[in-house]
Predict the structure.
Amino acid sequence: MFQKILIANRGEIALRVLRACKELGIKTVVVHSTADADAMHVRLADESVCIGPPPSRDSYLNIHQIVAACEITGADAVHPGYGFLSENAKFADILAAHNITFIGPSGDHIRVMGDKIEAKRTAKRLGIPVVPGSDGAVTEEKEAKRIAAEIGYPVIIKASAGGGGRGMKVARTEDDLEIALATARSEAGAAFGDDAVYIEKYLEKPRHIELQVFGDGAGRGVHFGERDCSLQRRHQKVWEEANSPALNADQRARIGDTCAKAIAELGYSGAGTIEFLYENGEFYFIEMNTRLQVEHPVTEAITGIDLVHEQIRVASGGGLSVKQDEIKFNGHAIECRINAEDPRTFTPSPGTITHFHTPGGLGIRVDSGVYSGYKIPPYYDSLIGKLIVHGRNRVECMMRLRRALDEFVVDGIKTTLPLFRDLVGNHDIADGEYDIHWLEKYLAAAD
């Protein structure tokens, strides 16, 4: 087991990893920018190192400073959390060159899954169902028209190196295709420095279903069930739940077994999430995230397994702690992402939290690094906390969520709490009848 882990992140995920390390008896080091000097994870860590000014490029994305912090403090492993450097293959390679363990998959696996085109090819080879579309990057309009005609309109054009909805355009007819292709390539080049795009069949009313998987790097793989992340705004997840209200037991077992076998065959090490669009009983691979997910607590709630403990165990060479038949699913869990944003316009709302009170009681968990008097800096993601609720079934979970949202108090800034209070009383949400377009239509109708 590791002696000291450096946590290369900030906010609630840094605190989440820190807690897991303390439970395992591992010393902790956190890095922080000058803007985060008063953050909760900085206060609670065994050691802290300031690595630069507020801009992420000068601090949390500064690989040389983070490696230097490891060497100064004697950290023998780095947990990247999510975001920032968590899916940076170069970072994983540099750590390995310095004999520091990256708590995550190999740089090679990060590279393969970070390229959307190569990831799709790999998924297809491993027997994972994929969305019909181009086999690789599309550069010519003539080729794009041929592929679109073969798979049928509407189609969606996506950036190969994309994420967060950038470099994605829908074409419903051949007349739309030319401008959609040019616009997607332009956006992709500006956002990612790579204008490669590919084409897929556009599904009209899919759900977003993802599978939590783990590999030991030596040919064993397991899955920890699925999460439904269909409530999204601008391709950003807002509300996640496990299990999905859209799947039955047979569908759940089928896709879980497929993903676990694929991870084993790939020789993958650590945590990963295989994401799908799901429509009319069929799953279509869209990407794989080679890191811990923001929404991992709902999986922990229904399995009783600490996924960060599992990450650390696998990275240290201890292998997986459970076999597939030992993973049991209990009840239902929902997570709401509480952001420092206006609940209608989603404009960021940095500032000082004057009063912060979290709900409690059976089945309630709040992951947050903020506190009364904490000043939210304007430089980073607006997520300030996650409310996770667990119940014996979805009905009990929704009842408990409603009560927890009523208890949650954040004063001094605007948050998305009012949005969740509206959603929890909506009939479609109560019935589990929604797709990836539902929330944007709901918000548009409310304006």
Remarks:
- The two ends are 54 Å apart (CA to CA).
- The longest helix spans residues 174-192.
- Residues 112 and 174 are 32 Å apart (CA to CA).
- The mean pLDDT is 95.
